[in-house]
Amino acid sequence: MALMSNGFVKGVQYLSDVRGSVSGLDVTIGTTSLSLAPLCGLLLAVVAILIIRRLFKISRFHGPADSIYAAHRTDNELDVRAGIGSTLAAFVSAAGGGSVGQYGPLVHFGATMGSFMRQHTGGMLSTDVFIGCGVAGAIAAGFNAPIAGIIFAHEAILRHFSLRAIAPIAIASITAAGVSKWMFGDSYLFAMDNINVDLIGLLPAALLAGPLFGLIAVLFMMSIRHSARFAASSGWSPARLLITAAVGAGIVGMWVPEALGLGTSAISDILNSESLHISLILLLIAKIGLTALCIGFGMFGGVFSPALLVGASAGAIMGRIFASVGILSAGPGMAICGMAAVASAVIGAPISGVLIILELTMSYEFAVAAMLSVVTCSMVAHFLFGHSFFDRQLLDRGIDVSLGRGHIEMMETYVADIAHDDYVHLDELCSAQNAIKIMLDAKVTESYVLDKNDKFKGKLTLHLLLAVSPDSQVIQHIESNPISIKHDASLQQAIEIASNFVGENIPVIDRDNNVLLGVVTEADLFKLYLGLQGRVADLERA
C-alpha cells in the first residue's frame, strides 16, 4: 500500500504537470487567454475509462462503500478484477483533470488486496481484519498518518474494535507509513510554515462555524447523489454520460482550473494564505458542482480530496468574515477546521478526521479547534443526511449497515433456498371426502390446491373440510389468499411474516408465475436464524 499510494499520487501529479505544460492549446476570448488543455485531458480520460470498463468488464465501479459492506458480511471476498479496474479508472480520471479524489479508490484497493491476501494465507485471520489492514495501509501511506490509519480502519470500515484486529491493523498501518517515509521521504500532503495559533480566539469561531460546515457537507453529498440518480435515470449510455461530464468540467476548468483534479495545490495556497486568481466563493461553488458532475456521470474517483478543498474554501471564507468583525485574527485556523469538518462528515469518521489534522500539522492547538468543528458538523450532517456518504450509497442499494452484521446476513439469506416439498397438494377437482382421507393418511391438517397447470390456487384446512359436504369439490372451500412468503423474500422478511402465522407450514410462492415452490415451517426459520447468529458471533469474536 505504501508503493501503491505514493505511486498513485505521484503519477497523478506528474501527468497533471504534463497536461498543464502543454503549449499550443491556448485560445483567446476577448482579452482573456484560456487553455484547452483541461478539456483535452478530460476527453482523453473518457476514452481510457471506456477502455478500462471494457477490458475489466465493469458495469459499476467499486469504492469504499463496497469495502464497508464486505467487512460486515461473512461471505465477504471482494472482486479483485473490479477493484483493480476501479482503481485504474480513478487514476485516469484524476490524472485527466476530473474533480475526483484519490483516497477512496486507494481505500478500496487496500481492502481488495487484503481480501486477496486472505485467500492465500490459509485463513489465519478473518477477511474483515485483512480488509482493515489494507485500508489502514492506504491511509497511513497517503497522509503519512499511521495513527489515523489505524483508527480509520476501525471507525469507518469495520465499525468495531477488537483485540485480535487491532494488532495486525496497527502493524500494517505503521509499516506502510514507515516504508513510505523510507522510500519516498518524510513528506506531508500539506506543507505549512510555522504558525502561532491563537487557540482562545479560534475555539469559539470553530464552534460557531461547525453547523455551517455541516450544511455545506450535506450540500456536497446531496449534489453528488442527485447527479448520480439523474445519470442512472437518464437512459444515456456510459459514453454519453462521460463525454457530458468531460465537456462540462473541461469548459469550467478553462476558467477555474483550481477546481479540477485533486485540488492539493489549491488547498496548500489557502492554508498558507497565498492569493488565488479567483474568489474563494467561486472556487467553493465550482468544486461542488464539478465533483457532482464528474462522479455522478461516471468519472470514478474519491470524495475525500474534493471534500477537503470544499471545507478549506468554506473555512477560509468564514475565517475572513470572522476576522473582518474582529472575532478572529487572520490565519489558516478556520480553513483547517473546515477541511477537517467537511471531510469527516463525508466519510463518517470524526475521530480519524481529527487525527489526520493532528498528524498533518503536528499542531495540538489546530487539532483541538478542528475537533469542535468536526463534532458539530458531523451532528448536523448525520441528522440531515446520514452517517456518511458511503452509508447513504449502501442505503440506496437497500443495505443498512447500522443495523449490524446479523441483520445484513438475514437480509441476504433467501427463504427459497430452504423451502422443501414435505407437504400435501390436491387437485382442484378433488372431493372433500378424498381430501380428508389423503390428509389423514399423511398426518397433516393443511394441504394446498393446485390447478391442472400446477398453479397455486389456495390452502385447505382439515377442520374446515370436516364441516362441509363430502361430495363437494375442494376448490369451493379454499383460502385463496393465505399467509405466504414471496420466493425472493429474505430471512428477515420471512420472520416478520411468520410472527403473525398460526399453522403447520407457510407456502413459498413464486408470485410472478403463481407457482408453489415449497413450504417452510417456523422451526426451519428458527434453525436458519440460529445458524446465522452463530456465524456472525464467530466473526465478531475474530
Descriptive notes:
The protein is built from 22 helices and eight strands. The model has no long low-confidence stretch (mean pLDDT 85). The longest helix is centred in the middle third of the chain and has 36 residues, at 199-234. Helix 6 runs parallel beside helix 8 (163-184), helix 13 (304-324) packs antiparallel against helix 14 (333-347) and helix 21 crosses helix 22 (522-541). The chain has helices at 2-21, 37-56, 64-71, 80-95, 103-119, 127-143, 146-158, 163-184, 199-234, 238-255, 264-271, 280-296, 304-324, 333-347, 350-361, 364-384, 389-396, 405-412, 432-442, 462-465, 491-498, 522-541, and strands spanning 26-29, 32-35, 425-427, 446-450, 456-461, 485-486, 506-510, 515-520. The protein starts with a helix and ends with a helix.
Topology:
Layout: H1 2-21, E1 26-29, E2 32-35, H2 37-56, H3 64-71, H4 80-95, H5 103-119, H6 127-143, H7 146-158, H8 163-184, H9 199-234, H10 238-255, H11 264-271, H12 280-296, H13 304-324, H14 333-347, H15 350-361, H16 364-384, H17 389-396, H18 405-412, E3 425-427, H19 432-442, E4 446-450, E5 456-461, H20 462-465, E6 485-486, H21 491-498, E7 506-510, E8 515-520, H22 522-541
Parallel strand pairs: 3-4, 6-7
Antiparallel strand pairs: 1-2, 4-5, 7-8
Helix pairs in contact: 1-4, 1-6, 2-4, 2-10, 3-5, 3-17, 4-5, 5-6, 6-7, 6-8, 7-8, 7-15, 9-12, 9-13, 9-14, 9-16, 10-12, 11-13, 12-13, 13-14, 14-15, 14-16, 15-16, 18-22, 21-22
Our measurement of the CA-to-CA distance between the termini, rounded to an integer number of angstroms, reads 24 Å
Q: Strands of the biggest beta sheet: in what spatial order? A: 3-4-5
Shape: elongated
Rounded to an integer in angstroms, the radius of gyration calculated over CA atoms is: 29 Å
SSE order, one letter for each helix or strand: HEEHHHHHHHHHHHHHHHHHEHEEHEHEEH
How is the biggest beta sheet arranged? 3 strands, mixed
Helix content: 55-70%
The low-confidence runs, each spanning 5 or more residues with pLDDT under 50, are none
Give the count of helical stretches: 22
Beta strands, count? 8
The percent range for strand residues is 5-15%
Q: Which structural class matches the secondary elements?
A: mainly alpha
Mean pLDDT: 85
